[in-house]
Write a structure and sequence with these properties.
Blueprint lengths: L1 H9 L19 H8 L2 H11 L12 E2 L4 E5 L4 E9 L29 H4 L5 E4 L10 H6 L6 E4 L1 H5 L1 H15 L2 E9 L4 E2 L5 E2 L4 E2 L4 E2 L3 E10 L2 E11 L13 E2 L1 H8 L13 E2 H4 L10
Parallel strand pairs: 12-14
Antiparallel strand pairs: 1-2, 2-3, 3-6, 4-5, 6-11, 7-8, 9-10, 11-12, 12-13
The structure holds a DNA duplex (12 and 12 nucleotides).
DNA sequence: CGGTGTAGTCAG
DNA sequence: CTGACTACACCG
């Protein structure tokens, strides 16, 4: 709990270094130099000898759906990141969630999959990462978002409150920008400290599949005008009720921080582009009610 | 009997 | 919009 307060206060002052990538240049060790001299052929031979029966695989390769793409964490049974690229047309139409239902994703081996029983009665809601409401243009696209590969255990108040308004804000951005690319996903961050001052990562797991309950959720929003990226906003939100008094900007962080915490480089082909802060070109205010 | 499916209600 | 929960029909 103390981390939450620290987070609320601390993120405001977080250095905002969007679009700037720094790669620490480690001193070249002897081993490193040797490694560089080994030809790819030799490396392949070594691999074939030591990994005779194949290279171990975490199954994080991108999985493609009608209107979203995701990478899945087979250990935590929740996504790592879920990507969308939406325009205002995507959020309009007659698709209705009453025709959709939550179900396991057959692309995920059952050994690594959550099921509805894990969530029911757990005290945690099934929270979309790619939201259903971004897919009103196509019932199948909306149905796809109900696969549990796109779902994380989310605090009920957070889901229907702050996070819901956050998602509405993302749809609102499609009225101002040609397209809006969004990465959403869960995070487990250290939230506690033991008596020795050692930081701890503590998160619940639910159901027989022990689906990980993230401590936080994140969104990365990249808006485009005339086909070129113009601004970016990154946010980390605690997975707990968020009072209305908090504004979106209080949860803003740098792209660097979010990439370091998740261990993912989100835009490997977005090189050197100077991007403005989303909240400097847009209000970043959430509306109280739907609209 | 337990599991599935749907429709309606309730709440943030 | 975001969800859970309940009652009831159906089925093997």
């Amino acid at each position: 709990m103390s981390y939450t307060r620290g987070f609320f206060a601390g993120t405001v002052t977080t250095l905002f270094a969007v679009g700037v990538y720094q790669y620490a240049q480690s001193p070249k060790s002897i081993q490193h130099q040797y490694d560089q001299q080994v030809s790819d052929d030799v490396k392949e031979q070594i691999k074939r000898r030591i990994l005779k029966y194949g290279v171990p695989n975490r199954g994080e390769e991108a999985k493609v759906f009608t209107n979203h793409v995701l990478s899945y964490d087979q250990s935590k049974k929740i996504p790592i990141w879920v990507a969308e690229c939406i325009t205002k047309e995507h959020a309009q139409g007659n698709a209705n969630r009453k025709y959709s239902k939550f179900m396991p994703d057959s692309q995920i081996l059952s050994l690594f999959s959550a099921d509805n029983q894990d969530y029911l009665g757990s005290g945690w809601s099934r929270g979309h990462m790619a939201p259903a409401g971004n897919n009103k243009h196509d019932q199948r696209a909306m149905d796809d978002t109900f696969y549990l590969s796109n779902i994380v255990p989310q605090d009920m108040d957070n889901n229907s409150g702050f996070w819901n308004r956050f998602e509405m804000y993302c749809r609102h951005l499609t009225k101002r920008f040609d397209s809006v690319q969004i990465f959403s996903g869960p995070l487990v961050l250290p939230t506690e400290t033991d008596e020795k001052g050692q930081k701890l990562v503590v998160y619940p797991v639910i159901g027989k599949n022990e689906v990980a309950v993230p401590t936080h959720l994140y969104k990365i929003i990249l808006v485009e005008t005339n086909g070129t990226p113009s601004a970016i906003g990154c946010f980390i939100v605690p997975n707990q009720p968020i009072e209305n008094k908090y504004s979106l900007t209080e949860f803003q962080v740098s792209l660097e921080e979010i990439q370091r915490r998740i261990g993912v480089e989100f835009f490997p082909k977005l090189d050197g582009t100077r991007l403005q802060s989303l909240c400097s070109v847009d209000s970043c205010t959430l509306t109280r009610r739907q609209g």
